[in-house]
Each structure stands twice: as C-alpha cells, then as structure tokens.
Amino acid sequence: MNIDAISSAVIDEAIGIHRELGPGLFETVYETVLAGRLERRGLLAERQVPVPIEFDGHAFGAAFKIDVLVERRLILEIKSVDELAKIHVRQLTTYLRLTKQPVGLLLNFSAVTMKDGIKRVVNDYRPD
User: Fold this and answer.
1) How many domains does the chain have?
2) Using an 8 Å Cβ cutoff, are 123 and 97 in contact?
3) Longest Cα pair distance anywhere in the chain, in angstroms?
4) Is residue 127 part of a domain?
5) Whole-angstrom distance, CA of residue 114 vs CA of residue 92
6) CATH no. for residue 32?
7) Would 105 be classed as within a structural domain?
C-alpha cells in the first residue's frame, strides 16, 4: 500500500473517532483507539515506538518516541491541544528527518472539526 493510501485510511479513521468521541480526551486515548482501528483495517500500527539516534559519536537509546508508526512508513503525532503550534510541526519534521521517513501526519483531536486538526508534514517526499 502506498503512503497516500495509508494516509487516507488514517484520516478516515481519525475523522470517525473524532465524530464518535469528540474533542477533549487525553492524547493516549485517541492514540490507542486510532491504532486499534487501523489494525482492524489490516494495517500495522505500532504505538510509542522508541527511536535511538547517534550524534557526535554518542548513541542515545530511545531519544524520542513516535506516537504511532503505520506500516513502518507513516509517522503519526497525536495531539489534544487548543491549537497546533509551530513547535508541533517542527517536532514532526525532526522525527521525519531523523528516521528518514517521507510523510507524517499531525493529528489534533481537540480541534472543533477533525479536518481542521490535520496537518500533513513531508520530508523529501516523492509520490509513488
């Protein structure tokens, strides 16, 4: 499955979850439910994936954790905040760069509508 099809499945599920549960819950609730829904669709959805990095000859185990990694290709950063900030985009951009992944989705479940809470972030992306 290509990255755009995976992204589409994630967005469909995120919108459905937002409609059913509404805004205002903790990020971990949305993360758990979304991963479960994606697995039900037959997609691999790994939660809290530790990512080690190496810098200046030093290894840092689990320097950060990816909220959800879908099909080992799409990084999801889950938020439940009043508004997405530039730092959230920079955080996901850094995750993409360090993992050499092309696309990530920033999903803010506290937005009034889920459509307003979705931000696609790319890192050297070339469509299939």
Assistant:
1) 1
2) yes
3) 47
4) no
5) 18
6) 3.40.1350
7) yes
d(C-alpha 35, C-alpha 86), whole Å: 25
Whose tokens are 């889920």? That residue is 114
* Tens digits of residue pLDDT in 12-50: 999 999 999 999 899 999 999 999 999 999 999 999 999
Its domain, for residue 8, covers 3-121
Instruction: Look at residue 128 and tell me if it is in a domain.
Output: no
Look at the chain and count its residues.
Answer: 128
Secondary structure of the chain in HEC code, one letter for each residue: CCHHHHHHHHHHHHHHHHHHHCCCCCHHHHHHHHHHHHHHCCCCEEEEEEEEEEECCEEEEEEEEEEEEECCCEEEEEECCCCCCHHHHHHHHHHHHHHCCCEEEEEECCCCCHHHHEEEEECCCCCC
Instruction: Decide if 72 contacts 44 (C-beta within 8 A).
Output: yes
pLDDT at 30: 98
**Span 52-86, pLDDT tens digits:** 888 899 888 888 899 999 999 999 999 999 999 99
